[in-house]
Amino acid sequence: MLNRGYSSSDTPVESIWFYSEMERRGINPNKLTFPFLLKACASFLGLTAGRQIQVEVLKHGFDSDVYVGNNLIHLYGSCKKTYDARKMFDEMTDRNFVSWNSIMTALVENGLAQYGFVEEALQLFAKMMKESTVRPKYVTFLGVLCACSHTALVDDGYKYFHEMEKAHKIKPMIIHYRAMVDILGRACRLNEAYDFI
After folding, report:
1. Same domain, 74 and 11
2. Which bin fits 169, alpha (ψ -120 to 50), beta or left (φ > 0)?
3. How far apart are alpha carbons 28 and 120 in whole angstroms?
4. Cα(127)–Cα(58) distance, rounded to whole angstroms?
5. For 51-60, how does the pLDDT look when each residue is reduced to its tens digit (9 = 90+)?
6. Do 81 and 49 have their domain in common?
7. Is residue 173 part of a domain?
8. CA-CA distance, 64 to 62, in Å (whole number)?
9. Is residue 59 part of a domain?
10. What are the CB-based long-range contacts (under 8 Å, 24+) for 92-97?
11. How far apart are CA 139 and CA 179, in angstroms?
């Protein structure tokens, strides 16, 4: 539990020290140990430490744990290693809602500099809807709308915004309205953006 506390503290690097201390004392990690270590690495952008933790994950046989996988995707996305995040996602045998959202977020956030990543996030959303039992939530649609904003897909943005409530019964929040205004603003459709509010 100390590991969990350190990973969310102002000094997340302490969780790495704590893990080293556990090893030194011969205390075996469990499946809850590694997600918190990876979360800590992501928070201080500790890519090297994260890769070392991934080696420990493999060594202890937790590489197929969905929570470990999700945190590796988050780590690589936070450290702008989008290809590594996507590779981790593709290799996961079990995916949940967090898995899909983590990879889409990594692609959108890192795709701001490269158009292809944002487009890939939208393709993954379509794949999730078609091939997965995972259903989108409000945060999923936020990522999709951000992707539409950065690729000037105004019509798609409208479609996803309306689909959110009509098809998925998710009431848009202020943040979704902001995303739609951003989509319209970037497309220089300021009157529509004003009317949308």
Report:
1. yes
2. left
3. 39
4. 28
5. 999 999 999 9
6. yes
7. yes
8. 6
9. yes
10. 92/64, 92/66, 93/64, 94/64, 94/66, 94/69, 95/66, 95/69, 95/132, 95/134, 96/66, 96/70, 96/134, 97/134, 97/135, 97/137, 97/140
11. 12
Q: pTM of the predicted model, to two decimals?
A: 0.88
Tokens coding 147: 């992707």
Q: Are residues 156 and 78 in the same domain?
A: no
pLDDT at residue number 116: 75
Same domain, 126 and 56: no
Q: Is 184 helix (H, G, I), strand (E, B) or coil?
A: helix
154 CB-near residues (< 8 Å, 6+ apart): 148, 183, 184, 187, 189
Backbone angles phi, psi at 133, to 5 degrees: -90, -5
Residue 61 lies in a domain: yes
User: Which of residues 94, 126, 156 is at a domain's end?
Assistant: 94
How many domains does the structure of the chain reveal? 2
For residue range 3-50, list pLDDT tens digits in order. Answer: 655 556 677 778 888 888 989 999 999 988 999 999 999 998 899 999
**Distance (Å) of CA 17 to CA 20, 36, 40, 71, 110:** 5, 13, 11, 19, 30
Q: Please report how many Cα atoms fall inside a 13 Å half-sphere around the Cα of residue 110, on the Cβ side.
A: 23
The residue range of the domain holding 33 is 1-94
In a shared domain, residues 80 and 130: no
- Give me the residue label for tokens 């075996």: 28
One domain for residues 85 and 132: no
